[in-house]
What does this fold into?
Amino acid sequence: MASSVNPTVRRRRLGQELRRLREQKGMTAEEVAERLLVSQSKISRLENGRRSISQRDVRDLCGVYEVEDQRIVDSLMQMAKDSRQQGWWHAFGDIPYSVYIGLETDAESLRTYEPQIITGLLQTRPYAEALIQGALPETSVADVEKRVQVRIRRQERISAEHNPLRLWVVLDEASLRRVVGGKQVMREQLEHVAEMSQLPHITVQVLPFDVGAHPGINGQYSILEFADTADSSVVYIEGVTSDLYLEKAPDVQKYTVMYEHLRAQALNVEQSRQRIEDVAKEYAR
It folds into this structure.
């Protein structure tokens, strides 16, 4: 059974603490790797939370950093233990973007720009099925269904009665016009987006074609923010074979400014909902 502990977040927080201890000691990742007879890349992966970390790793690193307070060591060891538990998504097997799901599950707010498709958290099941089948034509029916189930399960974050995810979406008009699954599927999909956009914690804006070139022209990205101040914001950029996670403050700031420009250039909330409803009616003809 999957644990309620979020292993992705535990790994990330643990990595941040280990990086802080290393920097306090005035050591480079290369120096630490040399002391432990491991690769520098392993130290980097442990610190950025992208790799599972064992209690032995924590013990060895605390030894190198000469951590004398046993309470700190015990706390870090417990975090390492928690980080190796399974989140709800592990029940679905190997999910390529499981790191992102872990972050999204724990995030307080999510801002995303989608240039081509309706964002996953607002997708209907028929739209998600058609989208995944089209994007991954060699994927088996069983794997398509698994991905759809994960996508629907993720949507519980925006439908939660208590503390739902605060979602802000900027959709390029192309995502409304790209016919995925046929006109009926698109009509129902856009009606769903219009309905969800009326919830107080969900904001949807449409970036119209006549805006021309804009800061998001290079593609999709998301910005995740967390309630715990110990967790820095993350920019997520989805890739075909691998994903990119940016956590350095200057990178996050740059994408945040880009997003503010997108929001300013997009139609306002009322105009966006009207545009979505108008396009939905076109699919009904």
Notes: DSSP finds 13 helices and six strands in the chain.
